């Protein structure tokens, strides 16, 4: 015979809010199931947004609905097409460390002066990425004639904001409040042999100093360690360079021995340092050759001594 235990009746409130507030005696409160659960974030939403941006970019390119300045600089193309692959190399291949970015002005013109090395001018490109990522400004680089005479490369250089390394263009950009980058060693610096690494070459005639003095903008010395190791230049085939119209034809341990593979830069660890700005407002003249030489020598010596300090603090060139 089965005995049935007496059941106690439970009063259920008619008010829904009251039901949710009062727990039963048999256990803890059970939260009610929402009538419309919050939908999960759809992964494809980000892809759709990126696709829409890409289509919008393509439409503006096809219809000409974009702006460039008088030098041919195209900010939209630079941000969408040119900077992303350079940023990948900057972050994952050279693993660039940046110090002193606070010395770059947030607004207004300034002249960034840097050492030049590495056989191919990767240092200029990495400096431009460093300025954009750390100060959110474009570095308007001054390039050699050879850059703009090279098919496709010259057009891309113009689109990315570069212009010819001449005083009128530099002064116009500086007066417009732009950050201008210059590498005064030129081909003597970028093409020097590996045995002369981190030894600054002559800084030309000081034309960059004259441009800064005429416009009254500060000069920011920039020192780069790491670029010298990407293509260790051990020889120069001068007859072949003259035949091709190049300033030099480099021989490295891997090029031309490994063909196109030898053109891949070695993954050295980089350090870019922006030094304290040098004011030009205290100089009364911009035509005095003594003043130009003095400021040029000051900037060069600042960069050279900074390079020595950075090298002393560096560990393995490829591990950091």
What can you tell me about this protein's structure?
The chain is an alpha/beta fold. 39% of the residues lie in helices and 11% in strands. It has a seven-stranded mixed β-sheet, sandwiched between helices. Helix 9 packs across helix 11.
Query: What is the rounded Rg?
Result: 30 Å
The parts where pLDDT drops under 50 for at least 5 residues are 1-9, 11-25, 30-38
The fraction of residues in strands falls at 5-15%
Q: Helical region count?
A: 11
Strand order of the largest sheet: 1-9-6-2-5-3-4
Global shape: globular
Helix-strand category:
alpha/beta
Summary of the model, kept short:
This protein has 320 residues and is α/β, with parallel strands linked by helices. 39% of the residues lie in helices and 11% in strands.
């Amino acid at each position: 015979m089965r005995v049935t235990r007496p059941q106690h009746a439970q009063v259920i409130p008619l008010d829904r809010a009251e039901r949710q507030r009062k727990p039963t005696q048999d256990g803890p409160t059970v939260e009610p199931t929402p009538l419309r659960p919050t939908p999960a974030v759809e992964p494809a939403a980000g892809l759709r947004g990126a696709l829409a941006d890409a289509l919008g970019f393509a439409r503006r390119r096809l219809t000409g609905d974009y702006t460039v300045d008088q030098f041919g600089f195209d900010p939209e193309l630079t941000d969408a097409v040119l900077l992303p692959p350079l940023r990948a190399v900057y972050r994952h291949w050279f693993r660039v460390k940046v110090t002193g970015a606070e010395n770059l002005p947030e607004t207004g013109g300034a002249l960034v002066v840097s050492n030049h090395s590495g056989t191919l001018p990767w240092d200029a490109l990495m400096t431009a990425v460093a300025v954009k990522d750390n100060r959110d400004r474009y570095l308007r680089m001054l390039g050699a004639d050879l850059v703009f005479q090279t098919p496709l490369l010259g057009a891309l250089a113009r689109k990315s904001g570069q212009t010819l390394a001449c005083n009128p263009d530099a002064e116009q950009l500086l007066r417009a409040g732009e950050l201008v980058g210059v590498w005064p060693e030129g081909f003597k610096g970028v093409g020097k042999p590996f045995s002369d690494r981190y030894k600054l070459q002559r800084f030309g005639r000081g034309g960059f100093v004259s441009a800064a003095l005429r416009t009254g903008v500060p000069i920011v010395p920039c020192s780069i360690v790491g670029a010298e190791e990407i293509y260790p230049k051990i020889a120069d085939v001068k007859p072949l360079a003259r035949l091709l119209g190049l300033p030099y034809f480099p021989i490295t341990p891997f090029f031309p021995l490994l063909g196109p593979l030898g053109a891949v830069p070695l993954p050295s660890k980089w350090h870019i340092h922006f030094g304290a700005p040098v004011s030009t407002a205290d100089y009364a003249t911009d035509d005095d050759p003594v003043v130009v030489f003095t400021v040029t020598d000051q900037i060069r010596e600042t960069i050279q001594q900074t390079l020595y300090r950075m090298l002393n603090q560096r560990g393995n060139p490829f591990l950091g």
